[in-house]
Each structure stands twice: as C-alpha cells, then as structure tokens.
Specification:
170 residues; 2 domains; 3-stranded antiparallel beta sheet; binds zinc ion
C-alpha cells in the first residue's frame, strides 16, 4: 500500500464524461482496486446508478468559474465590437450580433434604450457600458430551430453553457 495515490480532481463526471457546471454539487468517491486508491468524481445522476460501493465518498461542489466568466465577457465584448463595426451585410451575422447583444445585456455591458423601424426592419438601440455611446442592431426574426443552432455556436465560441433564460427576448 505504499504507492497508493488519490487522483487529482477531474473537472467532469468520470462515468458519463459530462463536465461539471460551476459550483455543481456532485460526488467524490474513492475506490480501492488492486491495492490502489482511485478517486472518481461523478455526477449525482451517475451516482444513483452506481454498480459498486466505494471505499469512501463525500459530497462536494465543483470550483466556481467566476474568473472564467469574466474573461468570456471581455471576449464577447470584443466580438460584439467587431460585429457592429460595419453595417450588417448578411443575415447570419445580424443574428449572431443579436444573440451576443442579449448575452451582453444579461452581463450589464449593454442596455436596451429603444427600438425603431428603419428600412422596413426592426432595430434595437443599445447603450454600451464601455463607452456610453449607443449602437443600433437589427432585431432579426429567428425561428426556434435556428435559435437552437445559433445557441450551440455561441456556446462553442465562448465556452458557455447557455440557460434557457439567455435566449428570452429582452
Ligand atoms: Zn455522470
């Protein structure tokens, strides 16, 4: 039993592979096999379905991802600046700009201060927290299946996990 070691905490469930959310309550279990201890963190769902009992276990929470989120917001602001630096040329770009704006509104980097109709399109007027100026973006019609696709793209871009509430219209 000299060389047993407890493995470093994994950032996800060792059973289903799903990464833990920030501060997600989960289980840390230590299993013994061949005179060796092995730590296997798992989500509560997988824990319910466990086939073998661990040597010991405890409930814990995943580390808070506050810092990560702040970096993501800065990245999103830069992305939004680029998106809105030129007038919207194509549909996908204005939809992505709109979704980015919704996220930045939640993060209080943008504030909706009005809406208007121009060139027979709906526009949102937003105030930018970083320079106090306003910017106008198209409020595009987005069908639900497309919204899902765009949401996945945004998640991939910024390493986010978007809850349903992120996509509610402001
Ligand atoms: Zn799991």
């Amino acid at each position: 039993m000299e060389d047993w070691k407890i493995e470093r905490r994994k950032s996800g469930c060792t059973v289903c592979g799903r990464p833990f959310d920030s501060e997600e309550r989960h289980l840390s279990a230590i299993f013994e096999a061949d005179g060796r201890f092995q730590r296997r963190d798992q989500c509560l769902c997988c824990w319910e379905k466990r086939a073998e009992e661990p040597f010991s276990f405890w409930y814990t929470v995943a580390p808070k991802r506050e810092q990560r989120r702040l970096e993501d917001v800065a990245a999103m602001v830069e992305f939004f600046k680029k998106l809105t630096a030129q007038p919207p040329q194509e549909e996908t770009r204005s939809k992505v700009a709109y979704l980015t704006a919704l996220l930045l509104m939640r993060k209080r980097r943008l504030k909706a201060v009005g809406s208007k109709t121009r060139e027979s399109r709906a526009w949102l007027v937003l105030e930018k927290a970083w320079d106090g100026e306003t910017v106008e973006i198209v409020d595009p019609p987005i069908a639900d299946p497309e919204l899902e696709t765009l949401k996945l793209e945004m998640e991939r871009l910024f390493d986010l996990e978007l809850g349903q509430e992120a996509l509610l219209r402001a």
